[in-house]
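Subject: Re: docking follow-up (adenosine-5'-diphosphate)

Dear J.,

Thanks for your patience while I sorted out the input files. As discussed at Tuesday's group meeting, I've set up the holo structure prediction with adenosine-5'-diphosphate included as the bound ligand rather than trying to dock it afterwards. The sequence and the ligand SMILES I used are pasted below, so you can double-check that they match what you have on your end before we go further.
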Amino acid sequence: MNIRTNFLLLAVLLPGSARAAGELDSGDTAWMLTSTALVLFMTLPGLALFYSGLVRNRNVLSVMMQCFAIACAASVLWVLVGYTLVFGDGSSLGGLTGGFGKALLAGVAADSVSGTIPETVFVMFQMTFAIITPALIVGAFAERVRFAPMLVFSLAWLLLVYVPVAHWVWGGGWLAERGFMDFAGGAVVHINAGVAALVAALLVGNRSGFPTTQMPPHNLPWTVAGACMLWVGWFGFNAGSAVASDGAAGMAMLVTHLGAATGSLAWMTAEWVKYGKPSVLGIATGMVAGLGTITPASGFVGPGGAIVIGLTAGFVCFFATLTLKQKLHIDDSLDVFPVHGVGGMLGILLTAVFVSSSYGGMGLPEGVSIAQQLGVQALGMVATIAWCGGITFVLLKAINLVMPLRVTRDQETEGLDLVLHEERGYEI
Amino acid sequence: MNIRTNFLLLAVLLPGSARAAGELDSGDTAWMLTSTALVLFMTLPGLALFYSGLVRNRNVLSVMMQCFAIACAASVLWVLVGYTLVFGDGSSLGGLTGGFGKALLAGVAADSVSGTIPETVFVMFQMTFAIITPALIVGAFAERVRFAPMLVFSLAWLLLVYVPVAHWVWGGGWLAERGFMDFAGGAVVHINAGVAALVAALLVGNRSGFPTTQMPPHNLPWTVAGACMLWVGWFGFNAGSAVASDGAAGMAMLVTHLGAATGSLAWMTAEWVKYGKPSVLGIATGMVAGLGTITPASGFVGPGGAIVIGLTAGFVCFFATLTLKQKLHIDDSLDVFPVHGVGGMLGILLTAVFVSSSYGGMGLPEGVSIAQQLGVQALGMVATIAWCGGITFVLLKAINLVMPLRVTRDQETEGLDLVLHEERGYEI
Amino acid sequence: MNIRTNFLLLAVLLPGSARAAGELDSGDTAWMLTSTALVLFMTLPGLALFYSGLVRNRNVLSVMMQCFAIACAASVLWVLVGYTLVFGDGSSLGGLTGGFGKALLAGVAADSVSGTIPETVFVMFQMTFAIITPALIVGAFAERVRFAPMLVFSLAWLLLVYVPVAHWVWGGGWLAERGFMDFAGGAVVHINAGVAALVAALLVGNRSGFPTTQMPPHNLPWTVAGACMLWVGWFGFNAGSAVASDGAAGMAMLVTHLGAATGSLAWMTAEWVKYGKPSVLGIATGMVAGLGTITPASGFVGPGGAIVIGLTAGFVCFFATLTLKQKLHIDDSLDVFPVHGVGGMLGILLTAVFVSSSYGGMGLPEGVSIAQQLGVQALGMVATIAWCGGITFVLLKAINLVMPLRVTRDQETEGLDLVLHEERGYEI
Amino acid sequence: MKMITAIVKPFRLDDVRSALQEIGVQGMTVGEVKGFGRQRGHTELYRGAEYQVDFVPKAKIEIAVADDLVEQTVEAIIASARTGKVGDGKIFITEINQVWRIRTGETGNSAL
Amino acid sequence: MKMITAIVKPFRLDDVRSALQEIGVQGMTVGEVKGFGRQRGHTELYRGAEYQVDFVPKAKIEIAVADDLVEQTVEAIIASARTGKVGDGKIFITEINQVWRIRTGETGNSAL
Amino acid sequence: MKMITAIVKPFRLDDVRSALQEIGVQGMTVGEVKGFGRQRGHTELYRGAEYQVDFVPKAKIEIAVADDLVEQTVEAIIASARTGKVGDGKIFITEINQVWRIRTGETGNSAL
Ligand SMILES: Nc1ncnc2c1ncn2[C@@H]1O[C@H](COP(=O)(O)OP(=O)(O)O)[C@@H](O)[C@H]1O
Ligand SMILES: Nc1ncnc2c1ncn2[C@@H]1O[C@H](COP(=O)(O)OP(=O)(O)O)[C@@H](O)[C@H]1O
Ligand SMILES: Nc1ncnc2c1ncn2[C@@H]1O[C@H](COP(=O)(O)OP(=O)(O)O)[C@@H](O)[C@H]1O
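The structure tokens for the complex came back this morning:
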């Protein structure tokens, strides 16, 4: 069951959706236009700030550049083939992706309608997801990769990983058919980005000096500002995934917010207990963990479920981060896997529990038990991990043969801003 | 008369609200979803930036942390008991608050409707007000209080001050019954925050070195960016308080904007005349003063009234700030009382005048004169000041007994970021 | 043909606009309230950040102050006479402007409706355009003009240049009658601002030290953050110019986004080829170029046209910037003319081509050929350039007689923040 | 002529400047530096990684004075910079061979 | 060997560097400092509180040169840094006992 | 007593500090400076204007030591700061006439 393909169905089930599909509703359209702006806002400037504040001074621009260039290139790719391969009628490549009928947005006119909104708006809204997912990955290999191979990787990854998984889950593919629940992208966005990040961190290797040299964030207020923008933008991400301006959107916003708030409080508490002091980077990271985790569940659970999910997310992602960086010494530099990957998995699984009306959720489909749904969720999770992990691995290996991924050690020392972009962040 | 409780009434009076209450309108919902995002945006990142740029380098994160943690904790508290105690049917505690029926959001489902929007959206929108009000107060005691007592205070204050006053004014309580006019929170938000700030500044005491040592803002561009976000977000605050996407919302946006613009120009002029030069911190502070002052009036007055209110706000709050800091040497560090408190009072009183159709407003209720309305406004103002002042005083005294509010002098010198959060803002 | 005056017409032509004009639509209203917030967000904080990061440390606040003060003063002027002189019924001053009937917003009440939205919202939405246009100009003379004459100039320019041109194009004036196509402000906003910038740069003169002394941006991350905000806000600018929440708005958003993305990629490519490295300032500037260029076309062209327009914009504006600064040594400090002026002209002309249904556009009016439309577009372009250039010249000369535009050389060396505003940006 | 270089706690800078002004010192030059010494730094926390920062912020004050003013100046600095806690800093005296005032070309004590 | 320390107005730094390059100075080290002296600072305004800031930004240039180049170097600095207004700064000469180039381990004048 | 002033590449600072700690140096003071020398700077690009930046970031380390420790200290710095590439920096030795510990008023070697 999936809101994007099944809004006709949900229109019957949920309040306020008395509008017939196929007929444009100006209110739904207004909210989806706004949601699109909000999700773009998450990447630019949100994520760009969040990430670039965490790196060292000399790499601040390189991170912003990566986010920016990915946003531009992914947009064009989405319009050319991405949209049709996720949402196009029929299927191609043996069911891996949607049909080619809407390549170059063929047939998407100003008066095309998708559900109760213009199809152009649906194209745009979905595009913003295709922008942020590869942009999330760059946190894993920040401060050491070359720009050109990074861009090639991001685009190829979008096509070979994001697009198929999005089709399976949201485009009416095999996971959608099995009733896989991923409201706004726990698997499609967060597990995908997290797993790719882990593979990339392992293949690209640690930053020189890691973990002995300290690499503190160069501008934490900047990072916190970015985190706040992510929070606000996430309302578009999750409540926009209702593809309507109605009670479903309202509830999605409420549970999203509670996921963020309780994820923050949990991480803050974990730090307070373990280190005696709560940090602002901690509370903000907990917020992202809470949001990533509530994302798949956000159209299915109630406020109570959201609070449990958020709290769990904060604690689990906190320990995942410690383990990966401090114990395993894997330099997933901005902690993409432990926050988004682990959070996404947690959310995908917990959705099966808290969707149940016994736990205040919107209810499981007729005749489906929590355990059965958990099975479907686990299947989708494993499929996403396997596909994403495998393709990402091959892709990075292949690109590295043709164009080395890493800068030299000297360049790493000098900083990517000067070396790759001939710019410096600050002249203050 | 109050837009939140009385939208049924207003739906008849105002344009564009031909929708029947109880039936969800997707356009109204779209605007309220957006407004919710905008008001959250005011606190995170808006206020967090505005405030944190004004303190010294070494305390930048502590201020952001306060805003962030308050946002998280207040959200949870709101869902648990805040919402029901303000808006729940019936009343409890002798009419001080609403009933307990919606504790833990009992009965608030995805298809619950409040007016023409989902009740979840109404819960969320109101939550953002419950977030920003305690967050405003932290400006008073910036750079010197400990984190834990600050958080305890904020939550207790929310419950004991904000919740009852909001119930009186917006939840159908005794002030609402008397026809007290406070469209978007002149009393509930700004007087409340301002008075609490003054009391807190007096009880916590001046920063060490104040007023002899200069404590210039460490990052004014940051503060100005935050101010701009406050301005934009305030559209959600005031025009969202129409709880509809209609002419009332449109007019509220227009007068809000004019209040901001003229408040800015007035403060700028005052500085230009008095010091020979206008400052950017001055113009931004005038904007906040104008916005705080227009807030209670924003659903009641016309453009002409808004201009007068904004200009008055700029001048009055300018002189209030000078008096408090330079004359009385009270270290309300970020000038919460002279800007929000004084502005809120001014706005509450001027509303009675400019609501009158003689002055271009929406009109006083049948048979009520300006003088009579002024009486009601003064009553509500005094009640808010008294309640808020008293409870805040007792609360801070009590908390201080159990957990000292202030850091030590040495810690103050070292800075709260390192001492309380083991972080530094910048490594630039 | 012009969306603002002719929405009645378009309501018939475009999808989803089954609403009758004159009857308020809550969805349209919701989107226009949001768009208004988005366009204000472009100036404050968007443009203020974008510009202030590009100047030197010591002038960061002066640029923010200029944007801020212009926003405030232009708002008041707009309400007093601007709105009526653009959109008021009838005409005055021999057809140069609209009638005076709505001076001081006479007759604009909460229940006044304009198309399907409250007239207050239409007033506000248009106001945000009147704010950003003069604010764009300040980039030309950054770091060297005095505050008072700058403010006088901005207001006079708004009245004498912006208002008439906006009336001609959007207020039913002579260009509208001839079928001039400028959906969201290619001529009204971008050519106008660009030409005024060029004239101002020439009259005010180069910054002392230009072009031998290097004047690198003092805070590029800040500038990139501002650029991102411009991008997001531009959705309101262009998709809001549909004055409805429908398919026209959806398509406008899509083509706007593509213009931004391809403009960015084109500029990035140009730098990469010419200098061997792409810069983040380059990609962000390409984005602004793409957006400025797609603006007039955004309601008329399809995605294919948008991609061509964006790519052209990136390359053309790149070379225009090089030529003006490096070859002609004209110190249009923040490149307003080569980006906005040249982009606006390009967009105005290309609209004639890509509006054609042969090129995937919405279609030319019955019986009008591309060549004919090109003629109309060229006429409007030349008229705008001539009017704007002439008046701006006279205006600056006149003001300079009464109040010198430039600070002294010593003041320029010390920096405008201290000299004009007695403030410093950073104490980090 | 001597150069007096004092490394002091940054928040004492204003006190030191006042003290020096009082005894008639007309000029000085101040830089921000990081000090390493007996005073412990602090720990920082970054997503679960706690680490030690050894450098503490200090202000470095340089004052050129005529030989006969050295003692008095040093005393004024010590009196105003001292908190009694570890990390109060050091004062170093070095020899200046010659000095010029750029504006006038003056040299010697009159250039100070 | 001598160390020449010049405190100059920051916006003159590029001119000084050019002037030094012209007379063949191969290296220098520059820091940002705040100066206190005859040159008045400025006032700042903060929500109605006007206050005096006494320190003005300066650049501190350090150049190690062989003894016979001192005079020439000082002249070049004075010529290029001078605006004739108060606050143009100072030049101090001190003695260097020894110098090493870290890369090669060279010492003495050839290490410069 | 001597003042050892070392100009080194910033990313070598931690290594130098460790090396000095190992040989028992108890304190030092570090500033951020910009160096000009044989090491070329870099080009920067600004909307189509490419220009040369000649200054490169350096760390300036100042260590006051007793006379008999100078040699050892210099060796430790050279060993830890050297990369063998141009721009590794310089070490200067100057004479200190006197030193005070502000906290205690101690002077001489015991003040270090
Ligand atoms: N040998 C040294 N050479 C140069 N600077 C030193 C030396 N020892 C200490 N300092 C400076 O003096 C500061 C204070 O020294 P520290 O040992 O922490 O405390 P105290 O001044 O109380 O002895 C240090 O932070 C450092 O900047
Ligand atoms: N006695 C001094 N010791 C160290 N630095 C000084 C001294 N006197 C002046 N300076 C430095 O020289 C700068 C310029 O000095 P000032 O007295 O303002 O003007 P002028 O150079 O024209 O005499 C000061 O800002 C300060 O940095
Ligand atoms: N004559 C000098 N006086 C002062 N500092 C110098 C001098 N020459 C070099 N330096 C400093 O030493 C640094 C390194 O010098 P450079 O000539 O680039 O390389 P190297 O150390 O390999 O000879 C410079 O960046 C500068 O900070």
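A couple of observations from a first look. The pocket of adenosine-5'-diphosphate (ligand 1) is lined by residues D 7, 35-39, 56, 58, 86-90; F 26-29, 62-64, 101-103, 112 (CB under 6 Å). Chain A has one domain: 26-419.

Let me know if you'd like me to rerun anything.

Best regards,
T.
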